[in-house]
Specification:
3-stranded antiparallel beta sheet, elongated, 150 residues, 3 helices, 28% strand, alpha+beta
């Protein structure tokens, strides 16, 4: 029998350490390992598994399989879902969050979007940025947004 090389010795020691840890962990957590593999489950685990099984059953019941010649036997056709009608959108609301001036240029933050004079936001053109307010215009309509400090 040949003697082990240094690399083989290190590998053997590492294997022995891993095996010792596995045995120690098994002895320390014996109830958990035997309970899991021996199918001894707590009431909470059983309730959770039955809830998962129920949700899976309801998902499978909803599927309708296409039968007959000419169809793909593995194709699953789901029944049409009821579509809720969306409510009619209100007029676009704008929230002025910040205004910043640097020399003669100014920027404003409206609905988390940074705009300058001449930019368009939500169909409105930014006409003027003043300290404390921004004026938006669309045709003959004008909206004045004021900065609310909390």
């Amino acid at each position: 029998m040949q003697s082990l090389t240094p690399g083989q010795k290190r590998l053997f020691i590492l294997l022995a350490i891993v095996l010792a840890y596995a045995i120690f962990d098994f002895v320390k957590n014996k109830d958990q390992y035997l309970g899991f593999y021996g199918k001894k489950e707590t009431a909470e685990v059983k309730a959770e598994r039955s809830a998962q099984a129920d949700s899976l059953r309801t998902a499978l019941v909803r599927r309708v399989y296409q039968k007959g010649w000419g169809g793909d036997p593995f194709y699953v056709k789901l029944p049409p879902r009821k579509v809720k009608k969306r409510p009619v959108r209100k007029a676009r609301t704008f929230r002025l969050k910040a205004i910043s001036f640097s020399g003669e240029s100014a920027v404003a933050m409206i609905n988390n979007q940074i705009v300058t004079v001449g930019d368009w936001i939500g169909g409105y053109k930014v006409l003027k940025i003043e300290p404390g307010r921004v004026i938006l215009g669309k045709g003959s309509e004008a909206k004045v947004l004021t900065l609310k400090i909390k």
